[in-house]
# Entry
Amino acid sequence: MLQRSFYERPVIQVARELIGCYLVREIDGEKLIGKIVETEAYAGPLDRAAHSYSNCPTERTKAMFQEAGHAYIYEMHTHALLNVVTGRVGQPHGVLIRAVEPIAGLEIIEQNRATVKRQIDWTNGPGKLTKAFNITKELYGHSLNESPLYIEDSERFVDIARSPRVGIANSGQAAHYPWRFFERNNAYVSAFRK
# Structure
């Protein structure tokens, strides 16, 4: 399990180094495991695309101001999206987990995505992976250092690429920040759309 010190570092470094790590969700004694293959960094008050850009905690963003290593989960278009809080307390930076490659618990993942025909589409987007892993707003503020949701250490020698973030609109220059990281040539990376 990754220690809090991993998350206490700069958000862009954490976003890059989460690639190849394993997202683990425990449900009824079963472990659902996915290799993280895509992330995006959001640098709080410096970043117009971040929910915490105003640097003022709200009911929605209060988890972003907690200690590093907590889950910040929000809903967008009926999808829950999982973010990892990074940096120091009161420094509201976070990493969006955009895609994972399913590794274990495939039967449960398949049940959770029963309406999706192709396995490749189970977890190749931020809303898809939370449905597959049954990650809901009930886990908002959860410490990612303990069950039932945590992240384990990474594979070594993952070929990592970077690009601008996906779907950032009306954010001025923030739309062009190259703060999206992904495993090169991994089929579970979401399709890039400007």
